[in-house]
Amino acid sequence: xxxxxxxxxxxxxxxxxxxxxxxxxxxxxxxxxxxxxxxxxxxxxxxxxxxxxxxxxxxxxxxxxxxxxxxxxxxxxxxxxxxxxxxxxxxxxxxxxxxxxxxxxxxxxxxxxxxxxxxxxxxxxxxxxxxxxxxxxxxxxxxxxxxxxxxxxxxxxxxxxxxxxxxxxxxxxxxxxxxxxxxxxxxxxxxxxxxxxxxxxxxxxxxxxxxxxxxxxxxxxxxxxxxxxxxxxxxxxxxxxxxxxxxxxxxxxxxxxxxxxxxxxxxxxxxxxxxxxxxxxxxxxxxxxxxxxxxxxxxxxxxxxxxxxxxxxxxxxxxxxxxxxxxxxxxxxxxxxxxxxxxxxxxxxxxxxxxxxxxxxxxxxxxxxxxxxxxxxxxxxxxxxxxxxxxxxxxxxxxxxxxxxxxxxxxxxxxxxxxxxxxxxxxxxxxxxxxxxxxxxxxxxxxxxxxxxxxxxxxxxxxxxxxxxxxxxxxxxxxxxxxxxxxxxxxxxxxxxxxxxxxxxxxxxxxxxxxxxxxxxxxxxxxxxxxxxxxxxxxxxxxxxxxxxxxxxxxxxx
Length: 558
Hints:
- By secondary structure, the protein is α+β, with helices and mostly antiparallel strands.
- Among the domains are: 1-40, no CATH class; 106-177, CATH 2.40.50.100; 183-282, CATH 2.40.50.100; 312-370, CATH 2.40.50.100; 415-511, PTS-regulatory domain, PRD (Orthogonal Bundle), CATH 1.10.1790.
- It has 16 helices and 31 strands.
- Helix 8 (384-401) packs across helix 9.
């Protein structure tokens, strides 16, 4: 369902009106009009306190019509994800990592148009190639009216085939990079000088059996038996002719730390130009990253567990500085532009490759250390929409490897249940306590009550619960008790004097009533309407004979 009018980018005609379902024919029209983005309604953003509305859910995929009111979409979602789960293997050896090795290594133009480069930071290296030196650069293709047609992010160290203002045809190559290694590039020209890079302690020669080429590889100095191993920091410095380390324009010196397993691409004493590769850090990360396919990965996502080697995300925009090392961790500080915001500090173990450098500008949510991000971090830093997109994408990837197609809305229904709770950050003058988990509706109710009485409202932030935890925290007592930890749930309910309104399916099955889905839902609605009418009739009748009621004879005394 369209969330706003979808208009033709050139003529401005409305293709789909707001609130109308996007059918196949309309989708084709949108596609042929080259509309870049469309806002649609989603289960995740539906504001109904109980269940979801038909407009946000859209089409009932079993019938091909709009979804009926009273359809048990939650059960359908759970089954749509659970049934193909039987085809996901518990063991992971079925899935070779072959599917993921060929990571994306190029950007091609998807439209004809002109090139615009956002946050342009490009240098020419010694081979005369254009090298992207920025970490948040984007290539934008605009049409002749100057409207954006496509945008793609450029990775650090990519070789650009086009520059600002170039005209491209569809299918032209715009940029390419090596997907198997992260480059360490120099920002200035000068002479290479190795620091703390000595053979046998921090360096070793590795020769490739197939090609016979020998490479210098940085190794971890711990465990080599050298006395000052912990203090060694393998670095490549760029010096001028007098042997002085060159200062960077952004501040700081031209020193590039190389982490363990990096392959050096330059010799000591060789000359380099800005944009040349000093070292490559192999991202076997990309290759072996999460071949945990199958059910364990799906369970990890739905249970919202923190991954073992979690990525570190920047919590604010700002410039990167390196602080004093702490034991065997490195201190990364992100300093915002304005002094009003406090800088944030991150302690990162020394062996890990930090993907930002001194003086780099990072945006909120950029990776400081690569890896699998923890879903809680994504929610805290980037917000709900980003998290939902991440979860849907990751879960779909697992199923796609097995060739299973699941519609996104089923995963969204489950994500909605995982994100239904808020954690109270400030109780204000309400009955809520900081740290309590409540539904959005409960918080709103408490705040409304406080507002009418002129008191201070409470504040809360969205939290992510794994599905097990989310099911135990439903409002219904019976539903939670029938799931896990029965005694704990029941004692908790008894102590708090909870009331179960019997709104869901499970609790009605347990007490033996009709479930409020399908025809049961229709009957419940009819009953509701009938009761309302009865009340209205009674009120009317009472209004017509108030006098008679007052003059009722007193009961005879015995």
